[in-house]
Amino acid sequence: LPTPRFADKDVCSSLSHGCEQLCVNTEDSYICKCHEKFILKEDGKTCRYKDVCNSVDHGCEHICVNTDDSYICKCHEDFILREDGKTCRSKNICKTVSHGCEHVCVPTGDSYTCQCHEGFILRRDRKTCRNKDLCKSIDHGCEHVCISNNNSYSCQCHEGFVLRQDGKTCRNKDVCKSVAHGCEHTCVNNDDSYICKCPEGYVLKEDQKTCRLCTDGPLDLVFVIDGSKSLGEDNFEIVKEFVSGVLDSLEISPKAARVGLLQYSTEVRTEFTLRQFSSAKDMKKAVSQMKYMGRGSMTGLALKQMVERSFTEAEGARPFSANVPRISIVFTDGRAQDEVSEWAARAKRNGIVIYAIGIGKAIEEELLEIASEPSYKHLFYAEDFTAMEDISEELRARICEALRESAHQQDPASGRFHKTGLQPSGPESTTIAITDVIACPNLAVHHKYLFEDSHTHSTRTTAKASKDKDQCKCENLVMFQNYATNEVQRLTQRYILSE
Known about the structure:
The protein is of the alpha+beta class and 499 residues long. The chain has 12 helices and 29 strands. Helices cover 24% and strands 29% of the residues. A 6-stranded mixed sheet has the order 23-22-21-24-25-26, sandwiched between helices. The protein folds into 4 domains: 11-67, Ribbon (Laminin); 175-213, Laminin, CATH 2.10.25.10; 217-421, von Willebrand factor, type A domain (Rossmann fold, 3-Layer(aba) Sandwich); 424-463 and 471-499.
C-alpha cells in the first residue's frame, strides 16, 4: 500500500513508526535513520554498529574484520584460521612454541614432531637425539674400545688385554709385563693382579716382594746325633759335616733360627743349647770340636732329654705362645738299646716335628716310631754314608715346606702342630708299613699297604737314590718283588686271622 500522505504533519509522532533509533518526517511520510557510527539495516527500522567487531564479543583470537552487518575472524601473517573460525595456529608451529626438539622441529597440522640430523636417531623422550653410534653419544666409560649394538653397547679391549669384571676397564693379560711389580725373583699373574714367588728353598719376606731363605724365619731346631760305637769315627766326621751343611742354610740369630745339639751314646751329652750361640760361625766351630763318644746307643734316653730339657725356655726355646716351629733332626745308624716310642710320641704331642735319618743298620720300625707323620715326608734312609749329601738337600726342602705350612698347621691356642697324612678310618682298619732295603746301592724304598675289609686300597712307593749310581739292576728288582709278594701274603693272612 502506498505510504499515507500527511502534509504538514509530524508523522513520526502520530504513529508507531518502529524506528530503532531516529524517525525523520518527510513531505508526506517518514524514514528511519541511525545515530552516528551506526547504519540502518535492511529492514529500514533497526540499526547496527558500523564496526561490528567493536560492538560484539566476536572471539577472534587475532583480528576481527567487519562484513556488512557481521564480521569474520582473520589471523596474523604466518598464521592460519582454525576450523572454529576464531582461533589461529601458526603456519609453522615450531616457531611459536617451546618445542624442546634437540635437532629439528617439523610442523604437522596443529602440532609438530621432532626429528634428528643424519647419523642420529630420536631417543625415547621424542625430543633429544643420540648418535646412531651409541658409543659416540653417551659417556660409555669403556677404557679401550666401545662397540655399538643397536640400542646398547659393549666394551672391548685392545689385543693383549682382557676385560675386567666391571665390563668397562681392561687389564693386561700379562700383568707382570705391564706393571713395575718389584718381585725379586718371579712374578706370577693372578687374575687382574699378580703375586711374587720365590725359587725353591726361599719364601717371601713381609713386603711380599723380596725373598729370603725359607729357613731365615724363626725356628727352634735341636739335632740329636748318634755317637755310638757302630758309627765309627770317620762316619762321625761325615755326620758333623752334615750338621754344618744344615747350619749353612739357616739364618742363625736370637730372632731367627736357634739351634741346639745333643750327642748320645750310652749317655746323653748336650753339646750346646738353643740359647748358647747366636751365630752360625760359633755353632760350626762347636760342631767341629765335638768329641765322638763311641759307646752304646740309647736313642730313647736322648729323646727324653730332648723333650724334658732341650726345648724348655730355660735352655733357650721360645714359648708356645710365640708360635715358633719346633723341629728335631734325629740321626741314628742302628737299633736303639732302649725304648724310643714313648718319648718320640711325647715329643710329637708337645708340638715337636721330628725328622728321622737312618743309615746302614738303622731299624725301620724305630725310624717310623721316631719320625713325625706322614713318614714319607719325615723319614730318610740310606744304605751308607755316601747318600748324606742327597739326604741333606732333601731334608732342607722338607723343612722349608714345613715352615711354609706352619702358619696353617699350628693351633694358636696351644702352639702345637696338627698331624697330617693318612689316618686309619676306624677300628676295622689296619695300616701296615714295610721297608725293604734292596741291593740297589744307597736306595731305600718305603711301601705302605692299607688293608680294609680284606681289600687292598692303595700302595705308595717313594725312593731316594744316589744321583751318580744305577738305582736298580734287574736281579735286585726281582729279588725285591719276590720279597714284597711274600710279605704281603704274610701280612694279609695275619690281617684275616685278626678279624
